[in-house]
Structure formats: structure tokens, C-alpha cells
Amino acid sequence: MKHVIFGGDGFVGRHLAERLVNEGEEVLVADIVKSDLPHYGRVAFVHCDVTDPAQVAKVSIGPDDMVYNMAAKMLSPLQIRSKRWQFFWPVNYYGAENIMKATAAAGASRLVQFTTDMIYGHTVQSPQTEDHPAKPLGEYGKSKLATEELAYEWRKHGLNISIFRPRLIIGPGRLGILEKLFKLIDANLPVPMIGSGKAPYQFISVFDCAEAARLAWKGGVPNAEYNLGSDNPPSVRQLLGGLIQHAGSKSILIPTPGFAVKATLAAFDAINLPIMDPEQYLIADEMCVRETGKLKRELGWRPQYNDGAMLIAAYDEYRAKKTRGAYATPAAVPAE
Fold first, then answer.
1. Distance between CA atoms of residues 328 and 7, nearest Å
2. What ranges in 23-93 are assigned the alpha helix state H?
3. Is position 49 within any domain?
């Protein structure tokens, strides 16, 4: 039995691969790129573009193997409206379909599939449990919801598929939209918030995501959906205020009328000059806290990192890269 990780060179996949091989497990990474990662001395690699059914079909999957799909296109880098479908769907949906087909064809029956909390769209109830209505606001969320619906069909054909819906994943090597925030703080410029800043903002650590995938395997790969998010997320004002203090910046937080900012961002998006993806700004001032009790009860998962520490670690990494061309190692701060 081996662990086959599609997208295993990516953000979550590389940490999952390292975690599994450190436990003595046999790991095969299937990805379109191969980075200079130290664990490749103990991990097998095969080149694979998940959008190509023939390449996916050639990946060596055995009947007893555990399969993970970590291949995905994310909300960063920003895409103009006309390019969003072609950016997200080939990998997020059709790539997932190719992997599910190949898994079933190999006689394997266990798959972990990552999607996103962006399938929920606007907040109807908070905290949001996994049965929250799913009405995504853009092509990213739509591609992921369609992937979940595809998984439901494959479950009927004998696949066990555990689905994870993470909040914004944060960790070493990935800054995304945060880089814009860090540049403002470094320049001592005002930091505008969408709304009053009283709403909470919730991250999830890449390490906690990798552990959830591992626990799904250990737990028998339940046919279930699970939210992934930190415990006790602070308000946006608390989160950003702590970062500004840590950075020694003179930046101040500026509350804004949420509706006006959203209208302005929508106008820029309409003329193909997006500043932020609609799926991010449309819910920025909503009480969108993802409830993770189901994952804790069923698989024994607990988040090990809190939001403030994760944001500060990301900022420190940004500073280290900017000043020395190196990456800082984020501190492991347990969640409260």
C-alpha cells in the first residue's frame, strides 16, 4: 500500500508527503513540477498534468493505495472575469474528475479531496457548519462545488471520498493577497478595512490541513465533508492591529462603509482591473466563521496554530525574503 498524492509538490501536498514519509509510509507524488524539496530523497515522483486524462491514467495506483487530490488553481494570482472559467475549471473540476476515474479504474477506493469554504457564498448562519447552503459567488467556488457534486456521484459507485473545505490556507512559501497588505504596513500607509473591522477573520495553517488529510486516511476515509479553520478567530481589527504592532509600523486601520468599498471593487472588476477577487471582498465584512466540530469529533483533529501567530509568521517570511532572499521559519504557536 502506498500514498499517491496528486499535486504533491504544491502547498499542502508537499507537507502531507513529508509527514507521511516521516512515518515510514511509501509515497508517490504526481505533479506537473518537481521542486528541490529534501524529502524527494525518500519520495517517488512522476510527472503528471491532471488536466490530461492519459497522464493521470498512467500514474501507478494500486487497489490498496490511498489517493489524495491536492492539485488546484487558487484565487491568486488574480484573473480578469473573462479568463476565470478557463483558469479554474480545467484543474479544479476536470482534473478532479480524471483522478476519480483513474482511482476507480485501478480498483482503489479511498480518496481525499480538497475543495474550499468558498462554496458557501454569503453567510446565512454563523458559525457555519457543513450543511450551510452552498451558493458560490464566482468561478473558483463554482468549480469546487461542482467537484463536490462529482464526488457524491462517485461515492455511489464505491469510492470513499473525504472532502475538506479550508478557509484561507496560510504557511511558509505562500503569501498571495497578503503581500499587498504587508507592503502597506511596511510603507507606514493607512490600511483600509472593508466595513468596521469587527467581523472575525479565520485562517487555517497548511500544517493543520496536511494533518487533516492524514487523519482522514487513519480514520478510514469517511464519506463526509469537513470544514477546516482555526479556533477562536479574532476580529479583523484585532488581527491587523497585532500585526502592525509586531511590524513596528505607523500604519493606522481605516474603517470604511462596506457597501461603498464593495461597489468600488466591483467597478474595477467590471473594467478588467481587479484589485481583489469578488469571492473575497463580497464576504469580507460578514460573520463567516467555519465550524470545525464535526472534524474534531469524527477524526480527532485539532488546529495547532492561531490566526495572529500565522499572520505574523507570514509577515516575517515576507520580510526575510525581501531583505535576505531567505524564508523565515514560522513559529509553532498552539491555538488558544
1. 24
2. 53-58, 84-89
3. yes
* SS3 state at 27: strand
List pLDDT tens digits, range 92-149: 999 999 999 999 999 999 999 999 999 999 999 989 999 999 999 999 999 999 999 9
Give the other-Cβ count within 10 Å of 126's Cβ.
15
Cα–Cα distance measured from residue 115 to residue 141, given in angstroms and rounded to the nearest whole number: 8
Q: What is the pLDDT of residue 325?
A: 59
Q: What is the pLDDT of residues 188-216, one digit of tens each?
A: 999 999 999 999 999 999 999 999 999 99
Q: Is residue 33 included in any domain, yes or no?
A: yes
CB 170 within 8 A of CB 310: yes
Return the DSSP state at 233: P
Q: Residue 156: which residues within 8 A CB-CB, separation 6 or more?
A: none
Contact criterion met (CB below 8 Å) for 226 and 295: yes
Judge if pTM exceeds 0.85: yes
The single residue listed with the C-alpha cell 476536470 is 94
Backbone angles phi, psi at 169, to 5 degrees: -80, 135
The number of distinct structural domains making up the chain is 1
Range of the domain at 25: 3-170+204-229+288-303
Cell numbers describing residue 186: 511596511
Say if 251 falls within a structural domain: no
- C-alpha 30/C-alpha 227 separation (Å) is 25
Side-chain half-sphere of 244: how many Cα atoms within 13 Å?
21
- Which residues share a beta bridge with 228? 166
The one-letter code for the residue type at 249 is: S
- Record the cell numbers describing residue 335, joined without a space: 491555538
Residue 64 belongs to a domain: yes
CATH number at residue 32: 3.40.50.720
Q: How many CA atoms lie within 13 A of 279 on its CB side?
A: 27
C-alpha grid cell, residue 292? 470545525
Dist. CA 210–CA 223, nearest whole Å: 18
In the chain, the amino acid numbered 55 is Q
Which cell goes with 215? 487523519
